[in-house]
Amino acid sequence: MKKTIGFITLGCRLNIFESDGLASSMQKEGFEVVSPSLKPEIIVINTCTVTNKADSKNRNIIRKAIRDNPSSQVWVTGCYAQTDKEAIQSIPGVKGVIGNDEKASLPYKILENYGNNNSKEPGIFDRFAYSNVLPNNHTRAYLKVQDGCNRKCSYCKIPSARGGGVSRNFEDVLAQIKFLQENGIAEIILTGVNLGWYRDNQKKFHQLLEAILNCLTYSRLRLSSIEPTDVDISLANSMQHPRFCNYLHVPLQSGSNKILKKMHRNYRIESYVKRISIIKKCNPNVFLGTDVITGFPGETKEDFKETLYVLKSLEIAKIHAFPFSPRLGTEAATLKNTVSPEEKKERINILQKLSLNQSYVYGLKQIGKNFESVLENNGVCTTDNFLKVKVNAESRTDLKVGQFLNVKISDIHKTDKEVFFSGTI
User: Fold this and answer.
1) Which regions of the chain carry the CATH code 3.40.50.360?
2) Under DSSP, is residue 320 helix (H, G, I), strand (E, B) or coil?
3) Which listed residue, of 24, 48, 49, 306, carries a Cα 20 to 30 Å from 284's Cα?
4) Domain covering 141-364: architecture
5) pTM for this predicted structure
6) pLDDT digits over 364-414, tens only?
7) How far apart are the C-alpha atoms of 196 and 125, rounded to whole Å?
């Protein structure tokens, strides 16, 4: 019987891609990838450390995995494993802790523990040592082209978790794009801590983007997220390509220049608005998403109102709202926390309601339109502008999860927490 391994992945799309890569490596070594609920011999937990809440969730999931699977080896990797290795090692039952700088070598470590590793020697792995990676238990493929960050945002722990900025080899990226397309992957999502910082010799991100789009005849391309300073006319022009998804996620964090300065963000609100306006002028129907941190030290009610004004005026369709939480070792952790927990909660609720309302307003404009969509599980399709549409697919035996469908949106539905759609194929 094959040895079994299961993955629990927390956090960002980089972690999803890397878990897919680790799963692929273990499959090549004869392991069967199964659900952690099936009590596999090995469980790998790929952690996140973006907030204090994420750290707490990591610890709870690690302990639960050990408690529910007493006969399994539990290995922990990811950002929390990089920044708080000793805290994880102190949890009884953890077999091994591997940080991000060694994550790609995790299969070697596991095989070494089995005493049957005959492949690579330790130390020759890097952050891009994942090749020919197909999605594992999801339809769309992630592709990491950049990792790490040299920016010093005052609230952020990611540079210590992911290290300095590095980029994947230009030709290797194109080879992976071609591999995914040849394997029938409908959508490829480029991921990185900071995509716009991509550099390989003289090649920059806009040149990589152009080269990728020139390769695509079947698969479509989506960017996971891009910083405001990398949004320009070049990107707007690239988004006119028929294989580029009609979607852009650009973190705002705050609509107050005072708060942005304290955050050490390298743009002003006037620049953010101008850059987003360039995109909207070229593509009025683009789906825009963003991140906002509220309750940052010194954020007044007036600062928060400025944030709401920017979000409303730009008609941002999806707002990921986070309450500020001080991260040990960051500059912001030394600042006086001037916003009460109750006020943070109230502001989060306001942002979530605004996001819901603006998603609904955007969605109303899509009724009656046709979209190229990827069929997911449970008869739900994802459009190129990232709408989730329930279609009449379950009774169709001729349809395959992961394929493209032409979907016409017929109706929109709104609950207290989400907006979703129904449509026909």
Assistant:
1) 3-114
2) strand
3) 306
4) Alpha-Beta Horseshoe (3.80)
5) 0.92
6) 999 999 999 999 988 899 999 999 999 987 778 789 999 999 999 999 999
7) 24
